[in-house]
Write a structure and sequence with these properties.
heterodimer, A: about 170 residues, mainly alpha, B: about 230 residues, alpha+beta, globular
């Protein structure tokens, strides 16, 4: 581990982590941004927010994801954007977990297999796989938060760019 | 930009580039979110098909005086709606034509642009008294993948002709996009009514169990329980 992960390779790991996290956020954000009504429904299904607020949040959320993804790609404020991405993922995990407990179907749109299928059965893996994926992304964002300076970045990754040196 | 990143954070060019990029990203986010918020709400000035019941979420209504009200939330591009339709359309079309239910159809458009086009065409067909016919035809000929470029105005007009719509008003209605704005009203209402998936069928406001959608005997039992004999 020490051989692979050292001060020379760390910026590359950070770069890869940034791109992975950004790729997921950008894809998720873009798909939802193209289908705003489905995005709104995908917030409503968790039955956490009042319907009106959920709808507005559903319209805005994809663009927040896209924004964070773009910052991660170009490497601006990597620490703060990864904290923001991680926070989003933590919120998603909480939302999915409470839906699982309440047996809410988390699919939306044309109903498929979002936890509860048409036959009324609960499918734990639907919730579990989503949570596992989000936890993986949370780990990436924690990594970037600790090692924000990476390759191909427009700043050093922290907000105190005035003091940072080239790495 | 590659050279800027190598200049180091104290270089003036570096900071300018960074601020410029931050500005562009901020613009994308604000413009995108703003446009999404601005374009997804009801349009009061939209023209409605004559069968529309504005109080019932701009749905297309049949038999408004029948005692049992049934709301159908569907998207013409949704495969499960197609399955629901193919399992139950004979029964449902019959209880509508027999005047036994007050049916209200809400053609949703969350799957994208071709959902909007098909919903608007269904509204045009409604004005020609052929909503149910086009409704069935749209599901029967649903393309394998969504927004694949299959649903064009020309094809929707041809489909309308195939179910017996002869008036040129239908073609004009489709070509002029007369009811495109109306689809936003339907969608806005469905969102506020917390309809999250399609098909969703409500009998007197209560959703039918998802288990009944593709099981026609269970579905008919639910209607019988609501007093439809």
């Amino acid at each position: 581990m020490k051989k692979i992960f050292n001060s020379t390779t760390q910026p590359w790991f950070t770069f890869l982590a940034r791109l992975t996290l950004a790729g997921v956020l950008l894809a998720a954000g873009w798909i939802k941004a193209m289908k705003p009504h489905e995005a709104a429904a995908s917030v409503r299904v968790y039955e956490v927010l009042p319907v009106n607020i959920a709808n507005s949040f559903g319209y805005i959320l994809p663009w927040i994801e896209i924004g964070i993804a773009l910052l991660l790609i170009v490497g601006i404020w990597a620490r703060w954007s990864s904290i923001a991405a991680g926070t989003l993922m933590v919120l998603f995990v909480i939302a999915i977990a409470q839906a699982w407990v309440r047996k809410l179907p988390i699919n939306c749109g044309c109903f498929g297999n979002g936890g509860i299928t048409a036959d009324g059965k609960v499918h734990p893996w639907t919730y579990a796989t989503e949570i596992i994926r989000d936890i993986g992304l949370i780990l990436l964002s924690i990594f970037i938060t600790y090692f924000p300076s990476g390759k191909f970045a427009l700043d050093t990754g922290t907000d105190n760019h005035e003091n940072g040196g080239e790495r | 930009m590659a050279t800027a990143s190598k200049k180091g954070p104290n270089g003036k060019g570096d900071k300018t580039t960074r601020n410029l990029v931050v500005g562009m990203i901020l613009f994308v986010v604000v413009a995108g979110a703003g446009a999404a918020l601005a374009s997804n709400h009801a349009i009061k000035s939209a023209s409605n098909p004559s069968a529309v019941e504005t109080a019932d979420g701009y749905g297309i209504g049949f038999n408004p005086k029948a005692p049992v009200k049934v709301d159908f939330y569907e998207d013409f591009q949704c495969p499960h709606c197609r399955d629901f339709e193919s399992a139950n359309h004979i029964y449902i079309n019959k209880i509508i034509s027999d005047g036994k239910i007050h049916a209200v159809f809400h053609p949703m458009s969350f799957i994208g642009n071709e959902s909007v086009l098909t919903a608007a065409a269904a509204a045009c067909a409604s004005d020609q008294g052929k909503f149910l016919q086009l409704h069935s035809a749209l599901f029967a000929t649903q393309p394998a993948s969504e927004n694949s470029g299959t649903w064009t105005n020309a094809r929707l007009i041809a489909l309308g002709n195939s179910v017996g719509i002869t008036s040129n008003k239908y073609a004009d209605c489709v070509n002029n996009g007369q009811y495109l704005d109306w689809t936003k009203n339907v969608e806005d209402y469905a969102g506020k009514a917390n309809i999250n998936s399609t098909p969703t069928i409500l009998i007197n406001g209560t959703p039918i169990a998802q288990t009944a959608y593709l099981n026609s005997s269970a579905l008919e039992a639910a209607f019988t329980a609501a007093g439809i004999k």
